[in-house]
Amino acid sequence: MTSYKLISLDETVVFPGMPVTLSVDPGTDERILLLPKRGREYATVGVVAEVTERVKLPGRGFAVSLMGLHRAVPGAASTDRDGHLRIEVDERGEVTPPATLTAELEREYRAVVEELLQLRGDDGRISAFLRSITGASALADTAGYSPDLSMDQKIDLLETLDVVERLTLAVRLQKERLTELQLRKRIREDVDSGAQKQQREYFLNRQMDAIRKELGQNEASVAEEYRKKIAAAGMPEKIQQQAERELSRFERMGDSNAEASMIRTYLDWLLAVPWSTRSEERLDPTYAREVLDADHAGLDEVKSRITEYLAVRKLRADRGLPDDKRSGAILTLVGPPGTGKTSIGESIARATGRKFVRMSLGGVRDEAEIRGHRRTYIGALPGRLVRALRDAGTMNPVIMLDEVDKLGADWRGDPSAALLEVLDPAQNHAFGDHYLDVEIDLSQVLFIATANVADRIPGPLLDRMEVIPFDGYTVDEKVSIARGYLWPRQVERNGLVADDVTTTDDVLRLVVSEYTREAGVRQLEREIGTLLRKTAATVATAPPATPVVIDAAAVRRALGRQKVFHEVAARTATPGVATGLAVTGVGGDVLFVEAASMAGSGGLVLTGQLGDVMKESARIALTYVRSHAAPLGIPDEAFSGKEFHLHVPAGAVPKDGPSAGVTMVTALVSLLSGRPVKSTVGMTGEVTLQGRVLPIGGLKQKVLAAHAAGLTEVILPARNAPDLDDVPADVREHMRFHAVSTIDEVLALALEPAVLAQAA
After folding, report:
1. Is the pTM of the predicted complex or chain greater than 0.85?
2. Could you confirm whether domain 2-92 is CATH 2.30.130.40?
3. 678 is catalytic
């Protein structure tokens, strides 16, 4: 081991290959040991340095230029004759590792240092120096040149003897420096851009101020303009005070403040509400009825209700009585699609001389859609009702709340709950919008809601509505609507005139009965449109000399084969099939219930996507038939070792409702007795375990469906007999109705006589 004079370093670390100049006296030694200190302790590795030049400074000082040679591990210490401390060292020459171990690390280190130099603005000299270094050990030691490394980090690098580990440490340290520099650069850029933005906004605002002054539109004039608008808006006193308070805030903070734009938006919305504007209502019941009759066929109940509403308003006006804010009409039109619910709203507005606004509520799930967002949220807006008043431009429009039965509810709130206040005549004179935060009088608005199924409207909301059913049209009514409304409209839409094409009511009846099965007339209008489009193609290519006559043959050519069939007779020819009547979202419909038996343990199989209520009806039906087998003439062995299956076809369509019990009992009795159900009979009603027939709803829609399907007899609960008054007279003339109280009466009317069944 070699002994070297010790020179301790307190503020620097020298690496192999690094030149350094120190104010020390090496004496006559050509090589010395440079050992850095970590606090009061020496590092475990030092560097043997060679003296390249000695300089005597003024006074008694010395300066030497040194070149680091290699690492050395200090050992035993001793003192020479001159009292200098000498250290025995274990000199460690560099061992070059295989290039395969260091090549990737070298590339990564060079890339990181290049990024660092680019951020620091290197003039190229350090990059050239870095490229001139080829050894992995010397490359790793260049990290010690970095002024950003602390004394401890440099000593850690010096003490790492393994070249691969040292290069790995150098990469990590330089990455930390790179991350820090990138962060500093990003912060500096953000600060600079923020300052530039503020400076730019300042100059733009000054320019705007100058432009406004040239145009005479300074902040004072903007505020004065708002003040004039507020005074002219005719707001209620409390609302005007609110507007003036917001305007005062705007004046105090100035137009350049960030909140000023929010206040201006709020004032714009407050002024957009037509507080003092009202349509001049035409209170003429006779004229209103004429308009409604001209626009729509049938619908006598809704037409009568509108004329009654206008008659009451007319009497109060004629006798000088003030408007009763609690007498507002909240009409809800419930019925299948295509029956004219939405279009009659426009007719009501025209008949009363009011503006018409439609609000579609289908799929709305956010309560803020009705009440608006609070002003604390960015991008807040008023609710749909305030926007509807703005669009109408009056405080007494007709607002149609379309598809109210399709409102949703989730974590954002329940819009139907927000509508409770809107549709309550006792509350809607003081409706509160969250954005405007003032009370709005909606009592003069004529609300008309539409829905397909009343059962889907929440109970508290339905309680505030006056429900008017739209139960669909008879065949004669559809023919009348087609002749008076659909045909002329489709003639015009297809570029034709009345002299180009003609047809008869019999042909229209053919289209209604053989190509459509619906409660409304939407599909009928599509079929008529198809007929007239093909006629338009003929007229456009080769105009005929006489009007084109659309007859039955032309209907077959244009619409194809018959699409709707009366299949009741074929379906009920076999015992075990009964014809029921149901109400769906698209109107009334005929529902077949099929029963079958098989060997089994006495269970019951149900198919056809039945809901819980229909499943319970099926179990009640089987229980009733088994418990009354003897009176029904069914032998006990008919149930022994048998399992029963009840199926309602169209299994892809979910079905539920409390009116299928009678039909299920009839199907089971028909199966077990061998007596087919009469092909002309349809039935509806719920049954109890004692055989009582309970009342149902939607009788008119069910009767219309039975009539359209070719049935001539309908069995219904006795308590529903008064509801037959709602059925059109022409339908009642062609059908027989049997009001029953017990299931025995149903079976006597529905099943073929036993003698005929045996003969068959």
Report:
1. no
2. yes
3. no
